[in-house]
Write a structure and sequence with these properties.
It contains 2 helices and 21 strands. With about 260 residues, it is of the alpha+beta class. The strands form 5 sheets. It has a 6-stranded mixed sheet, with no helix packed on it. Strands 13, 15, 16, 19, 20 and 21 form a 6-stranded mixed sheet that branches.
Length: about 260
């Protein structure tokens, strides 16, 4: 009988001696990637020491319009544009029909007033994937042999950021060519020829790629490389010199015969 009375006493003593676990918060998926209009699950798991009804809050800490965090879930309800399309189970939030505006960093906070450590938090990054759109390309239609030519390709909307592939006559150009006549920057979409030759004549187009969806290309443009016409330049210089000489001779002739004299 005495043993029955000593059991509760021993339990109280052991609970005071043995270490207990304060509030802890974690996430099983710290980085969440989803496409637009899909469902995003922001996981948040917690355990408390004593508090059976802790306070749960969600905040968006980065990717907001203001410098301070925006409340997502506060005082038992969702706020702003999360209301009506977000649900919570435990501390895990499920967000319907995500958009680019939802992308950013979120923080799950659990407050347990009865615990020795009263606040725990976990951070989750939400990335909303966007496939490439048709890139904008700048490709010259002609150039002179020996000149520098730069082609540009840009697609700023894809998430994650796109990389670029250049094509000549529908064949991909190696990023690191053996002959080194051109250079390609896959990140900026620039194709640069330091000194074009007749062999560089052809149709060029650019393709934007990322893991969010199928690649997109701009329309091809034919670039013609022409040799510098030395004969035409010399002929033009000769004609200009003849015109200047004739004008000078005419002016001198008129002056000698008194056409410019005053009565």
């Amino acid at each position: 009988m005495d043993n029955l009375f000593t059991l509760p006493v021993m339990f109280v003593i052991l609970s005071q001696i043995l270490p207990s676990s304060p509030v802890t918060v974690s996430t099983s998926i710290p980085v969440v990637e989803v496409h637009e209009d899909q469902v995003a699950r922001l996981s948040c798991e917690f355990s408390t020491e004593n508090d059976e009804r802790p306070r749960i809050e969600w905040k968006k800490t980065r990717g907001t319009m203001s410098t301070s965090p925006d409340f997502v879930y506060f005082e038992g309800e969702f706020r702003r544009n999360f209301r009506g399309r977000a649900t919570i189970k435990g501390a895990t939030v499920t967000l319907e029909k995500v958009t680019q505006e939802d992308a950013g960093e979120y923080r799950c906070e659990v407050s347990a007033a009865s615990d020795s450590v009263q606040l725990g938090e976990a951070n989750i990054t939400l990335i909303v994937l966007v496939p490439p759109q048709v890139p904008s390309c700048e490709i010259p239609s002609s150039a002179i042999t020996g000149t520098e030519v730069e082609m540009l390709c840009s697609e700023p909307h894809g998430v994650p950021a796109v990389f670029y592939i250049w094509y000549k006559d529908k064949k991909p150009l190696p990023v690191h060519p053996l002959n080194g006549t051109y250079s390609i920057n896959e990140n900026t979409g620039t194709l640069t020829f330091k000194s074009v030759t007749k062999a560089d004549t052809g149709q060029y187009h650019c393709e934007a790629r990322n893991k969010a969806g199928p690649p997109k290309s701009c329309e091809g443009t034919h670039m013609e490389i022409d040799d510098l016409n030395i004969s035409a330049i010399i002929a033009g210089v000769v004609v200009v010199c003849l015109v200047i000489a004739l004008c000078t001779f005419g002016a001198c002739y008129a002056h000698r015969h008194g056409f410019f004299s005053r009565d």
